[in-house]
Structure formats: structure tokens, C-alpha cells
Amino acid sequence: MSVLSQGIASPDLERQLDLLKHYPEIAEAHFRPAMDQAATILEGAIRPNIPVLSGTALAAFGAKVSGKGLTIAAKVGWGTARSDRDAWYMNVVEYGAKPHEINARKGGRLIFTGLDGTVVSVPKVDHPGFPARQLMKRGLETSKAGIDAVMAAANEAAVRDLAVP
Questions:
Q1: What whole-number distance in Å separates Cα of residue 36 and Cα of residue 1?
Q2: Tens-place pLDDT, residues 28-80
Q3: Per the domain annotation, does 121 fall within a domain?
Q4: Cβ distance 121 to 19 under 8 Å?
């Protein structure tokens, strides 16, 4: 998503973007390191709040910056780490779950092992649900000022490099 599609528009900004299209090395020199730093800031704000039971969510969490020039993008979340572990459930942890029934597949049974080693086999369970943890949202809220400062500094450096003496 570009800054223009977010509702930020001005002739100066449009001119800067047009110039950066002709000088992608300037965008690369300033915005790539800034995106790396911004992704690290956001990752650092979220990672300590990830619940750990098996370690799957923590292992699958990470940050990645890709693209070049004006197409540089950062992704922070699950599926970005170098892990073959799938933390599909983190979307549910982020947004919460309403109370619901969980049924075994095709007439099978759900098998649970208690902490004391007791095994229980049932055809269905009633899940009580749980509130949203909002790890990503809270992480962005707490790191936004730092990310904005990093990106503003990159923008100022790019403007200085684009200035005609």
C-alpha cells in the first residue's frame, strides 16, 4: 500500500516519489535500512508477549523485509521465520474465540492426555472460548512512535540526497 493510497497527498510528496522512481538507489540506501530497523522494533515489541506452550508460535514468528527501491515492504508475524512449524492458531489467539463445539472427524474421537497421564476419549468437547490477546495490535501501538521516527529520518535523508544544489 502506498502512502498516496493511505490518504497522504501533496505535490511535494508526489514529486519526491517521482524522483525516487528515477533514483531507486537513493530509496534503497535510506529506506531499506529503515524498514529493517522498523521491522526489528515491531518484532521486539510483539515477541515477548507470544504465549509459549510448545514453542511453535515463537519459532514461527519473525520479521522479513523484501523488495527494492519503492517496492520495499516489511512483514512481521507468523510465516516469516525460517521454520517449518505452522502456528495457524495465532490468528485465533490474536482475535479470540467465541464459545464453540469441537467435534471429532468422521465419527472418530478426540483424545486428550491430562497432566497426570490420564487419557480421555470423547466424540466432542464444548470449548468455552477466550478473549482476544491482540498481540499484534498492542505491539504496533507501543512501537509506532519509534517506527515513525525511523521512517521520518529515512525520509529526511532521502530528501537531502534528492536536493538539487
A1: 18
A2: 999 999 999 999 999 999 999 999 888 889 988 999 999 988 889 999 998 77
A3: no
A4: no
Cell of 96: 479470540
| All residues at 6 or more sequence positions from 113 whose CB lies less than 8 Å from its CB, including other chains | 119, 120
| Residue 127 confidence (pLDDT) above 70 | yes
Q: Is residue 126 part of a domain?
A: no
Asked if 67 and 31 count as a contact pair (C-beta separation under 8 A), the reply is: no
149 domain-assigned: yes
Q: Are strands 73-78 and 61-66 parallel, antiparallel or unpaired?
A: antiparallel
Beta strands at 119-122 and 100-103: parallel, antiparallel or unpaired? unpaired
Tell me, yes or no, whether 124 lies in a domain.
Answer: no
Q: Are 113 and 88 in contact (CB under 8 A)?
A: no
- Number of domains, the chain: 1
- For 80, the domain range is 4-96+131-162
